[in-house]
Design brief:
The chain has 588 residues and is of the alpha+beta class. The chain folds into 5 domains: 87 residues, Zinc finger, CHC2-typedomain (DNA Primase, Chain A, Alpha-Beta Complex), CATH 3.90.580; 125 residues, DNA primase, catalytic core, N-terminal domain (DNA primase DNAg catalytic core, N-terminal domain, Alpha-Beta Complex), CATH 3.90.980.10; 106 residues, Dna Topoisomerase Vi A Subunit, Chain: A, domain 2, CATH 3.40.1360.10; 66 residues, Pheromone ER-1, CATH 1.20.50; 139 residues, DNAb Helicase, Chain A (Orthogonal Bundle). The chain is 48% helix and 12% strand. It is built from 24 helices and 16 strands. It has a 5-stranded antiparallel sheet with strand order 1-2-3-4-5. It has a 5-stranded mixed sheet with strand order 13-12-14-15-16. Strands 6-9-10-11 form a 4-stranded antiparallel sheet, covered by helices on one side.
């Protein structure tokens, strides 16, 4: 068979397959409300957190984040290839895989990128072993105490000097295009098809996704060139704001109970060299809520490691703000500050693993750091300064959805300031929910309309993809809404495949970050009765128009201050009137 499988055929197979029967024949399921539960087959656990929904025809693990449909379950559980798994499902249904295909799956679209990245790292690994100028790279690694075993474990490589190491390789057209798409080759603007290497004279660090596939490369320069560290650009498989270097390797090292967030690749590798195999690093970006959510899927304890200077403490405070919306009862955060002039790489080599591990144990907890950071410039013997502390901390506490933890922070603030504890918001109540989906892993901060608007639209579409035809939206480009790109991707897919099911959608993006985000949303309980969904879609459509108009008016206001114009002013007046009309609609 050649070509690609039509999405319509995949949907047909999934529509006629019962995921509960399929999984129950391999993993014993027990009824849990309207869903089914079991201990997850993809990670070790004692308490069942693996849930299967017959209604939505998908599975989700609240422990490790594994998710997908019947097709992806066979692929991951029985290690079958895509075609074999599809044949396995289609055969009992009397369906033969078609020879003519008209629509690619997301997996097929990304295969050339994975192949190109794998080709590149194999070449770079070979250069670290055999290139005439390899000694500079080998010496650098040895000076850092990195052994051959660790270099092999992390698949370290070497991009030699010069502009054409990769470009002069005997590449197929597909590999060449994959290297261009992933940014490892760059086309010369002044000459036709000629191109040059992006990585030159650098130690190469492959960046892997949670399945171990190489999705991008990082490079550390060996001379005085800038930048010191360079990542390959974002692509269809690589999103810097989501990924964590070393996370896959940490999982492979064995069961981990905590993760240590450090700054650079060499910090991760140096700590692994000393037996501390639970360090990860962001890819040149600040730690985001997405990063923290991904880590909390695996562990209950995250420790952040920062420089001890003002910049390090500023970065730590940014991490606090990213953590607050997703911290839940039972999860812990720590903050570790290094001596001036030290980084984890240098400190673990100087002190040794035991001393560094002791520093981790002594990391400051989230609550202690919050109170100390916000009171460092205050005199807490002063009534005025106590009021200032309460004013600073209360908005932060409101972001926390962990009921018990939020209550304890409120009590601590009350003890320090003498100001009576304010009543907890409804989200902080302690009544245990029937389902773990709401409290164990809240997807996003609940009191930010810009966040919940896209999530709400996505949940409704996952409940019934046919509602997309009723969703009347403005231009979503550049709207300041979290998850707007995810919503646009879902709408585009439904436009291409109007009859696609929730299971089909999750299968289309299985193994990608989009698929993981959609699985979390699909796993949420829907509190809206089906007969109210049409009115809800109308209300959501109106709210999107309100956000669009507010955003457009803000842009015109800025433009007006820079370039006064009656035309701009007139457009702003018209938009303000339309905004007022939209707001009135929202109150009816």
């Amino acid at each position: 068979m050649t070509g690609r499988i039509a999405q319509s055929f995949i949907d047909r197979v999934l529509d006629r397959t019962d995921i509960v029967d399929l999984i129950d024949r391999r993993v014993k399921l027990k009824r849990s409300g309207k869903n089914y539960a079991a201990c997850c087959p993809f990670h070790q656990e004692k308490t069942p957190s693996f849930t299967v929904s017959r209604e939505k025809q998908f599975y989700y693990c609240f422990g490790c984040g594994a998710s997908g449909n019947a097709l992806s379950f066979l692929m991951d559980y029985e290690h079958q290839g895509f075609i074999d798994a599809l044949k396995h499902l289609a055969s009992p249904l009397g369906l033969d895989l078609p020879d003519s295909q008209d629509a690619p799956t997301a997996r097929d679209d990304h295969a050339p990128l994975f192949a190109a990245l794998e080709c590149a790292i194999r070449s770079f690994i070979n250069q670290l072993r055999h290139h005439p100028q390899k000694q500079r790279a080998v010496t650098y690694l040895k000076q850092r105490g990195i052994t051959g075993d660790i270099a092999r474990e992390f698949s370290l490589g070497y991009a030699p000097p010069g502009w054409d190491h990769l470009s002069k390789q005997p590449l197929t057209p597909e590999l060449r295009q994959g290297l261009l798409t992933t940014g490892l080759l760059i086309e010369r603007k002044d000459s036709g098809q000629a191109c040059y290497d992006a990585m030159r004279d650098r130690i190469i660090f492959p960046i892997r996704d949670f399945r171990g596939r190489i999705i991008g490369l990082g490079g550390r320069v060996l001379n005085d060139d800038k930048p010191k560290y360079l990542n390959s650009p974002e692509s269809g498989v690589f999103h810097k704001g989501r990924e964590l270097y070393g996370l896959y390797e940490a999982k492979q090292a064995g069961k981990i109970k905590q993760l240590l967030v450090v700054e650079g690749y060499m910090d991760v590798i140096a700590l692994a060299q000393h037996g501390l195999r639970f360090a990860v690093a962001t890819l040149g970006t600040a730690t985001s809520t997405t990063h923290i959510e991904r880590m909390f899927r695996l562990v209950d304890h995250i420790i952040f490691c920062f420089d001890g200077d003002d910049a390090g403490r500023g970065a730590a405070w940014k991490a606090v703000n990213a953590c607050l919306p997703v911290i839940t009862d039972g999860k812990r955060l720590g903050f570790m500050f290094l001596p001036e002039g030290e980084d984890p790489d240098s400190l673990v080599r100087r002190e040794g693993a035991a001393a560094f591990a002791e520093r981790i144990q002594q990391a400051e907890g989230l609550a202690d750091f919050m109170f100390r950071h916000q009171s460092s410039d205050l005199n807490l013997n002063s009534l005025e300064d106590k009021a200032v502390l309460a004013q600073r901390l209360r908005p932060l506490m409101e972001q926390i959805t962990a009921g018990l933890y939020q209550d304890m922070l409120r009590q601590r603030l009350s003890n320090i300031t003498g100001i009576p504890e304010t009543p907890a918001t409804p989200v902080a109540q302690h009544t245990p929910p029937v389902q773990p989906t709401v409290t164990r892993r809240p997807l996003r901060q609940q009191n930010r309309p810009s966040t919940s608007l896209c999530d709400k639209a996505l949940r409704l579409l996952l409940q019934n993809t046919r509602l997309a035809s009723e969703l009347q939206l403005p231009d979503l480009n550049d709207l300041p809404l979290e998850h707007v790109d995810l919503l646009q991707a879902v709408l585009d897919l439904i436009a291409q495949h109007p009859h696609i099911s929730t299971a089909g959608m999750l299968g289309f993006w299985h193994g990608t970050d989009i698929g993981a985000d959609l699985a979390i949303l699909a796993a949420s309980e829907f509190l809206l009765p089906a007969h109210d969904s049409h009115q809800e879609i109308a209300d959501i459509s109106n709210r999107f128009h309100v956000v669009y108009l507010e955003h457009r008016i803000d842009l015109l206001t800025t433009e007006l201050t820079q370039n006064p114009s009656m035309q701009i002013l007139s457009e702003q007046v018209i938009l303000r009137q339309e905004l007022e009309n939209r707001r009135r609609q929202g109150h009816h």
